[in-house]
Predict the 3D structure of the following.
Amino acid sequence: LEAGRGMLFLMPERRIQRFWMKNTYIPLDMIFIDEDLKVVGLVENAEPHSETSRFVAHPSRYVLEVRGGYAKKVGIEAGQTVTFEGVPL
């Protein structure tokens, strides 16, 4: 996964979203975003090959996965507003 790139998951409903890293080979940051495009929480540097459930305590509608450490490097925090370019919501 290149720096500055990621995978955006558009979930069908707002709820506590859960992910695991079973088939993932690199650490990832998971950025959980609500329907108002506010960051509601982060999981940073999720361990690769793990079946541990990863989630935050607040419901979300979107989850952005980026290379581990990226969120801290660029200052992404809960409460910030995000924008999506070229993504039909």
